[in-house]
Design goal:
It contains five helices and seven strands. With about 250 residues, the chain is α+β, with helices and mostly antiparallel strands. It is globular. The strands form two sheets. The protein has a five-stranded mixed β-sheet, covered by helices on one side. The chain has two domains: about 70 residues; about 150 residues, Heat Shock Protein 90, CATH 3.30.565.10. The relative contact order is 0.14. Helices cover about 40% and strands about 15% of the residues. Strand 4 and strand 5 form a beta hairpin. The termini are far apart.
């Protein structure tokens, strides 16, 4: 062993700025170099299925679709910490409407009953993050709708001290109480009869968005015992805070 050598371990940690740079590079590559081949592959499979209908090609299209959804969800989750957050007084009806638009929830085309309470207040939030969280919750409510019931989604808000709790109830398949907490972890998919395949990131996006906005989230039973309630608790708007415009 030469002069000056040491048996003490050296600090090999990568600087935080390099970690962020590498993550940005990965997300950029994933966005451009993975999505394009997947779209091409799915197009080729669809063309082949039109020429030669086959259950194997149908399954291949379904797999390609799931891969696309998983990739989009992974990119969304990875990009959340880089979002430039703007906390403003966001009217909850505006955020809900935007979340419905993002989820593709067109009430004129689908047999869905959405009951939105009147007089819901504003919350201190980032409108984009809140809409993304609501999009994920609404998408889950539709994805896990009960096959024998018309989907009903009830949305209201209650004050809890200096915070506002937004409650979204559905009448779908529900979530066992023992599984509710881990549903907010990334890559968690619940198995069960009648469950459509998910990407495992929906409620993880909700929790990360809530954390960024100094909020909390969770699941509970609905008042009638059907489906599940997802709740978001966010700060109430302090006096003098700038309000968001009410347009969508």
């Amino acid at each position: 062993m030469g002069r000056g050598s040491t048996d003490q371990p050296t600090d090999q940690r990568i600087p935080e700025n390099e970690v962020r740079r590498d993550l940005d590079l990965f997300l950029s590559l994933a966005n451009h170099d993975l999505q394009a081949p997947l779209r091409t592959l799915r197009s080729f499979v669809e063309l082949a299925a039109e020429e030669h209908p086959s259950p194997f090609l149908d399954e291949a299209m379904a797999i390609a679709g799931r891969l696309q959804r998983l990739l989009r969800a992974t990119l969304t989750y990875g990009r959340l910490p880089r979002h430039r957050m703007r906390l403003r007084a966001v009217p909850l009806p505006v955020a809900v409407e935007l979340g419905m638009q993002r989820a593709g929830l067109d009430l004129s085309e689908r047999p869905i009953d959405v009951k939105l309470a009147s007089g819901m207040p504003a919350v201190l939030a980032d409108r984009v993050l809140l809409a993304m969280g609501l999009e994920a919750i609404l998408d889950n409510a539709l994805r896990f709708a009960h096959p024998e019931r018309q989907p009903v989604i009830t949305i209201d808000a209650v004050a809890a001290g200096d915070r506002i709790r937004l409650r979204i109830d559905d009448n779908g398949l529900g979530v066992p109480a023992a599984d509710r907490q881990r549903c907010f972890d990334p890559m968690v998919r619940l198995a069960g009869s009648g469950r459509a395949p998910g990407d495992g990131f929906g409620l993880a996006v909700v929790r990360r968005a809530c954390d960024m906005m100094r909020g909390t989230c969770g699941m509970a039973d609905t008042a009638d015992g059907l489906g599940v309630r997802v709740w978001l608790e966010l700060p109430a708007v302090p006096p003098g805070f700038e309000a968001e415009p009410t347009d969508i």
